[in-house]
Amino acid sequence: MKNKSVIFFDIDGTLLDHEKQLPLSTKKAVKQLKEAGHIVAIATGRAPFMYEDLRKELSIDTYVSYNGSYVVVEGKEIFTNPLDIPSLEKMTADGLARNHPIVYMDATDMKANVPEHAYINESIATLKIKHFPTHDPAYYQGRDIYQSLFFCTEGEEVYYQEKYPSFDFVRWHPLSVDVLPKGGSKANGIKYVLEALRISEANQYAFGDGLNDIEMLRSIPNSVAMGNAVEEVKEVAKYVTKDVSDDGILHGLTLVGLVTK
Q1: 106 included as an active-site residue
Q2: What sections of the protein cross the membrane (predicted)?
Q3: 128-187 confidence digits (pLDDT tens)
Q4: Choosing from 10, 17, 178, 213, which is the catalytic residue?
């Protein structure tokens, strides 16, 4: 198809509304994109197992997970960037001494290094997902860990940032930060997708709303910020659509000429 495009969608606040639901208008718009021969992809900070049902519902097999650390194109794993295990092991021990637990996450599951902790319960509950980490303190051994959730209050991560320079720490909840490989980003993961698909720049699109979408929206020519996006995101996007709960995806796709209402 001469004008085949690829459209990358963030999940929370973009594909899913504020209640973590998929708006009917979004589902219909994605179906229209696929029927027109376009490639629909997901670019998210989430683990693959956290949105498996969404991928099935929308028939999506190309996705960038863990903010660029785990990339799949048409069902095939094409790029991985796991955490440095020796550093992770040291940070785990450091955190235990300070009552800061950790959750290890690979491509299929997540496990906590403590059997129970209030910070883990409270923060993960806000994701409204089926999965909840069970206890396995040795889960990081002998496998690739692409991201960890580290549980500490705001400001406490500074100590770890200074001590573990091979990691990036990105706060997503008052009680938790994502631990990522240094320099990882959705934009970097998307680069591998674009190389595999060979889609021209003019036919590259991306939708997002959060701070971890900024690099993605900067790197994609046809970038769209959701109406509910933070101001920093709106400033870097080429277009701004409506709120996710106000048919924002449908409106945005119409705005860029990919679908018709």
Answers
A1: no
A2: none
A3: 787 899 999 999 999 999 999 999 999 999 999 999 999 999 888 999 999 999 988 899
A4: 10
